[in-house]
Amino acid sequence: MPGFKGLAVPGPSNMPFRIRQAMDVALEDHRAPDFPQFTQPLFGDLKKVFQTKSGQVFLFPSSGTGGWESAVANTLSPGDKVLASVFGQFSLLWVDLCQRFGLEVDVIDVEWGKGVPLEGYLQHLVADKEHKIKAVLVTHNETATGVTSDVAGVRKILNELNHPAMLFVDGVSSIASIDFRMDEWGVDVAVAGSQKGFMLPTGLAVVCVSQKALMAGERAKLPRCFFDYRDMIKANAQGYFPYTPAATLLRGLRAAVDMLLEEGLENVFSRHNRLASGVRAAVEAWGLRICAQGSEWYSDTVTTVFVPEGFDANDVIKTAYFRYDLSLGTGLNKLNGKAFRIGHLGWLNEIMVMQALCGVELAMRDVGVPFEPGAGAGAAVRYLSDTGQAMRIAAE
Amino acid sequence: MPGFKGLAVPGPSNMPFRIRQAMDVALEDHRAPDFPQFTQPLFGDLKKVFQTKSGQVFLFPSSGTGGWESAVANTLSPGDKVLASVFGQFSLLWVDLCQRFGLEVDVIDVEWGKGVPLEGYLQHLVADKEHKIKAVLVTHNETATGVTSDVAGVRKILNELNHPAMLFVDGVSSIASIDFRMDEWGVDVAVAGSQKGFMLPTGLAVVCVSQKALMAGERAKLPRCFFDYRDMIKANAQGYFPYTPAATLLRGLRAAVDMLLEEGLENVFSRHNRLASGVRAAVEAWGLRICAQGSEWYSDTVTTVFVPEGFDANDVIKTAYFRYDLSLGTGLNKLNGKAFRIGHLGWLNEIMVMQALCGVELAMRDVGVPFEPGAGAGAAVRYLSDTGQAMRIAAE
Amino acid sequence: MPGFKGLAVPGPSNMPFRIRQAMDVALEDHRAPDFPQFTQPLFGDLKKVFQTKSGQVFLFPSSGTGGWESAVANTLSPGDKVLASVFGQFSLLWVDLCQRFGLEVDVIDVEWGKGVPLEGYLQHLVADKEHKIKAVLVTHNETATGVTSDVAGVRKILNELNHPAMLFVDGVSSIASIDFRMDEWGVDVAVAGSQKGFMLPTGLAVVCVSQKALMAGERAKLPRCFFDYRDMIKANAQGYFPYTPAATLLRGLRAAVDMLLEEGLENVFSRHNRLASGVRAAVEAWGLRICAQGSEWYSDTVTTVFVPEGFDANDVIKTAYFRYDLSLGTGLNKLNGKAFRIGHLGWLNEIMVMQALCGVELAMRDVGVPFEPGAGAGAAVRYLSDTGQAMRIAAE
Amino acid sequence: MPGFKGLAVPGPSNMPFRIRQAMDVALEDHRAPDFPQFTQPLFGDLKKVFQTKSGQVFLFPSSGTGGWESAVANTLSPGDKVLASVFGQFSLLWVDLCQRFGLEVDVIDVEWGKGVPLEGYLQHLVADKEHKIKAVLVTHNETATGVTSDVAGVRKILNELNHPAMLFVDGVSSIASIDFRMDEWGVDVAVAGSQKGFMLPTGLAVVCVSQKALMAGERAKLPRCFFDYRDMIKANAQGYFPYTPAATLLRGLRAAVDMLLEEGLENVFSRHNRLASGVRAAVEAWGLRICAQGSEWYSDTVTTVFVPEGFDANDVIKTAYFRYDLSLGTGLNKLNGKAFRIGHLGWLNEIMVMQALCGVELAMRDVGVPFEPGAGAGAAVRYLSDTGQAMRIAAE
What we know:
The structure is a homotetramer.
Chain A: E1 6-8, H1 17-23, H2 35-49, E2 56-61, H3 64-75, E3 81-86, H4 89-100, E4 104-109, H5 118-127, E5 133-139, E6 141-142, E7 147-148, H6 151-161, E8 166-170, E9 189-193, E10 204-209, H7 211-219, H8 229-237, H9 247-263, H10 265-286, E11 289-290, E12 302-306, H11 313-324, E13 326-330, E14 339-343, H12 350-367, H13 375-395
Parallel strand pairs in A: 1-13, 3-4, 3-5, 5-8, 8-9
Antiparallel strand pairs in A: 2-10, 6-7, 9-10, 11-12, 12-14, 13-14
Helix pairs in contact in A: 1-9, 2-9, 5-6, 9-10, 10-12, 10-13, 11-12, 12-13
């Protein structure tokens, strides 16, 4: 089918040409004498993206799921208790992983559309007098529902209770797009993936670990080898890896980190917020409902949109894909058929957002969803034009 | 600036990844023993794009301007008379080229917004009892104004008068996008460029020449070497070139021709027409005027849009470019400041058109052009959704 | 430094342009409705590369080490006994992984330069009357020493003893380069990586598992999630993956498998053998010794070459790298400083081998290693020219 | 056929990945408001490559032949006399071009293997009391024979005679590889192409013109339009082009010029000289004769090698190409069948040279040319190792 495909899923995101070019290289020897001159500054700059000074970054040829597994396998022992909440497909899967690794998981079920329940966490932690809870899990941005949670709030509870549990954060669809502060929030393991805010192909778990979590690893009894932080620490210290790294992706990651730091993290975050607000303005103008139940939960990387009763969201998705070359995210688990997702993260500007919105309009009109053609696009044009001018005035 | 740039100029057009990949190859020896196995089928398939059986295709490492020059230098002698009409920047430049080569040009000036004046041509040709006019020039699609002319109509006049003049067509922004029929229309030299309907980088003049024009070349006295058809004929017959060809572009051209033929020329043309109609629906909904003065002149590859009195079209263009990463075409010559151009040709689908229209909306709103945000986008959504369904029903 | 770098390490290997092009694509939605039409034939064709009908192929975004881990974690329980032999860095590391996962490993230490000790395996298996040994590990091609072992021989022993242990094979540097027969040899888990015979960037563990091993997984108690075959089986059956797959590498893998099958596995293997023989002829002409202690151990993908007493192999490697842009493999573990390695696998032809050999000559001459310049190159030219003609005569 | 192809023709040369990446970009609007910020520094830096301060550089979407044509068409009038010498296929073709443009050419025929005859030029210029000779043509590096001529010597003659003729130099296979000094040598038009020392795909004529030649253009009566310097001057002054430029190649040219200037022209030239000397050492060791009849004519970018009597050079070339994936240059015109050419220019290092030499050895041995396998490779290894160390000592 002629024309460029549009990609508006919440990851993989749109890969910039500069990153493509950076990876369009011949394969290389990862044991070359000058390889450390490449890897060591990269690790240093990655820490800036996590906003950490004391944390240590690990790069596994893997995916976000591997990052979750690394967090658990490197710091805990069979039977350890962890506290978690489930409010979407990805928070659900992380809990499942913990259970498979023989952990005891205190699970708080939350209505999908809301995020981490601070009140519930408080109650569990208050009740945990003996500090059996070794780790608290937070899905920073639930990619299934488009809900962002309050990591700092969880840290505040832990601090107030003086509870020693580690704080693990799934930042796969937030880090490098939405403000994330490793050190300030006292995060112990933060998990990111290459294919979201880092604008790369899937294939790297980018994990940042606190010294506290590394020390916990000394006593952790879960078996690990591929994901073992200790081997990584030893080899990374020399600029190498314990086994063949995904060097091509590392070359791309170098470009990605350069781009993020050149733009400035603050600007990256505010750009995501502004573009996401444009999307939300469009959804409102269409008269549709989004999954996040209140502005405190709004995600700046993905918006989950309900279709009206009597319509199948998958019809919209398939029409967008097959007729209009636009990939929208499917509704996952119980949202399937009820909602579609618009991803708006990574290498994104106004006209890419507008393209996705218009693609949704075309597909919805074909399917018969009632709305005024142009209403969403117009609302987004108004919002983006107005705020763009405001931004430029602010910059003067 | 983050995000992909949008390209909505009337050439260069958007290059498909398949073509990029086809050109992302190591350089090669153009005298390799198996080079003819690559070039000869390519020449054969190019003839299909020109809809010719008897014409001969030439590939010069050059641009459209070089193609114009080749037409003149290979077929005419100093002092020869040609008939031409001017109704935009490109028809103007071709006349200028003829004059520099010492030809006597009968020029008919036409209001910009209209195309080749059949009546005027008829008068000149009727008056030319002695057949001093050796060639008649037609700019099939005037890229400056977005006006498509009636080549078949010119041929009809020549035939009715039994006038032996050659028919030269500038098809740079029409061929491979808008229906062009070399044989049926009796065209003697047709000039195309790589960067429009062929979806390639600039760098190839793709020229198709009738046997009649080749024979005229025997007596033509204008000097030529780089653009000499005779050297090309001799070398091409063996599958080679008289000097180093732009082999990388030829590899891309192979992919482009494959894509055009796989889609089917009919489908390529109707796709361009439908997408262009969507653009025109949007312009109408904005309450703006287009340059082409009537639907008989509408171009399916470029639309030239006037801004309202009191506005500078260049403000829209610069705002679109610098704030919204969208390249629009500038108004050329006397249209400068008065109009901007939306290119809609080549590797294009609905969401790419919508992106360009929304970029125009964003820029116009920033600049203060009065219109209802979303009106253009909505009109296009309606048109494209409605006609898309019609097309699918027709296909069943 | 000007000029192309030469890559003569035993993985990553040289990536063909066709594979680069196949991966130079925009990122894509791995949940797209037509994704299964891409993945399902790919799984089918991968089985041909493993020469299996009944095995099941898994693709993890990981590396060979992850493939090893998947073999162990999916089929065994803590305390299970496995039989293994160590004769190089990679056979050593696999044993280490088993121990970390709480397995009891019967390790046979073998002199580096030899491979799997059939006699030793026989003794252990005969002694294992109670069938406590659940799996037998074989490093098919030890990349550190350039030694290929007899997998079929191990299977023969198991069959003759009617021993039910599973047979696990590390084929990372053999599969797709050296003959490997999953079904005929009764292999239960075979582990390959993307960056060797598959000519891709690092980032995929390509694993093939027998039905017997899959059934063993039902009772296996080692924890796993990222590497869990069960999740993969379920999702792959629909053409999808349990978590985001490395889709870009999958696109490259499609091209790689096409290339292997188009060339024909038989031809791939004999090409590797002929080019490796050319390398060995050169080493002999230099008067140097290779690590493999006899032609029965010769590896067709990597040759480990000892430098003479008094020389440091790392000087040769660094000189080749920094002065001549050629990457040679370092000596690993106890071979460090004593040997360098020439990788000759994947996308390789005669002139690439000659380039590597000449790079070695240049570096050795700079370093002062005594040899006759041109001797190695000349021996390889003779061998390759002679056998090339023989091959062509055979083909007629 | 598996493996990378080797390219050892005298252009196109091997394109560096950095240049490929620089050109692997989306197409762009050549009328964009910030396009001049790209083009103007590029023109400035190109002057450094020509070693000129006062010359003006032109970039035509064309090839070297177009550059020749531009030199003639922009500065001369029909009937003007030029002085030229022929000693190979390319000097021959330039003369032919002049004749087709109606110039009167004083041609000195020189034995192929020698270069510009200073003595002959002196005689013609002395005899030309009336200064009817308007231009003197010099093929700096005859690509057919591998002969470099003395441009400075021609300038010296002109100066001594105070002859006002312009000096035109074909530097297609010398500029950016072999020392070329526009200002110091008083060159009036220098012609280069993108696909040799500039390491780019074919498609740009890179021409440098003195102020004297530009002034001559005011009176020149040959017709021109595509190649008209005057249009270029006017548009380039604003950072634009009179017609669509080959912008993708310009992006690559930016990278190429950066690479040349980063390496340093002096280093580029000495690298070419050293690698060429290695090739000549190999040819001597094979016992073969090169076309250049004395070291004063040796070309550092191409070596033309005679095969012994009774052999057909095309057999060597075809064998190298079809069996060993190596492109060698064919013998042109009367050298066809008698000689093959080894190109050694552009992005080249020692191991690339060695690869080409070994490919020649393999092909010659297959064909039966008598020589000692390894002799050429060994001689080159000796030469390159020895001179490499000398260079490094000199650098300390």
